[in-house]
Write a structure and sequence with these properties.
About 50% of the residues lie in helices and about 10% in strands. It is mainly alpha-helical.
């Protein structure tokens, strides 16, 4: 698992450090692991920052984002992607030349559901070989 400093997190998600700290204060992003200078941020923090950023760019207020984090709405418009924009994808190697990529911020699938999808694809490929 990768861990990042606040400055590295800021660069990864293209948000100012001050904004990330504000999101943490508003409980839109989890508190860091550790305290002060030893504080570390995980991939989950990256995903949370990108989710809040995406919804903010889609026009949601911070209050609506807080509600959406508790129960994601289905009617949030997708902001247009810009070249070079960072997006977190779950990527599962299925077979040579076959990768399953899922954008968690859009699909909103639990990890167990993603595993079931991958297993289903693998079973389909295995049965095709028989």
């Amino acid at each position: 698992m990768n861990f990042y400093s606040i400055n590295q997190l800021s660069e990864l998600v293209e948000l100012p450090v001050r904004t990330i700290r504000f999101y943490i204060q508003k409980q839109l992003v989890d508190r860091p692991i550790g305290e002060r200078k030893a504080a570390k941020y995980s991939e989950q923090h990256v995903e949370q920052c990108l989710q809040v950023k995406k919804w903010s760019q889609a026009g949601l207020s911070l209050d609506k984002i807080a509600l959406a984090l508790k129960e994601p709405p289905s009617d949030i418009p997708e902001p247009k992607r810009k070249p070079g924009e960072i997006n977190m994808l779950t990527s599962i190697h299925i077979a040579q030349g076959i990768e399953l990529q899922i954008d968690q911020s859009i699909a909103r699938l639990e990890h167990t559901t993603i595993q079931l999808i991958a297993e289903s694809i693998l079973k389909t490929l295995e049965s095709k070989d028989d």
